[in-house]
Amino acid sequence: MIRTTESPTDLVRWLESEAADLWPAILGSLSFRRSPCGRENCPACLSGEQHWSHVLYGRHKGRRFAVYVPEDLVPQVRRAVENGRTLQDLLVQAGPRYVRALKRVRVSALKRKKN
Ligand SMILES: [Zn+2]
Asked: How many Å lie between the centroid of ligand 1 and the Cα of residue 68?
């Protein structure tokens, strides 16, 4: 809910409380892909079946990264990716609210000056 009297401090408190349960948060995408293992004469690779595994993909400063995620760690990594998306969404929501709150502070400061 957006209050029309929200101050910049209120906004910070809102962000802090909403984000409190969102750690760890990471940005990236977790995918399930097939790839060769690199072992010589591996039957799975020779047959073309290869090996399924989870990989975390992302991009930082224009550079792509891909990190292998062992199966037992997938739930934790998936949760962190979800937290990252939720946190990103919160930050986007915070933008207009923060600007409106700053404008409100400026307007009331101007009014005080006049009086
Ligand atoms: Zn293989």
From this structure: 15
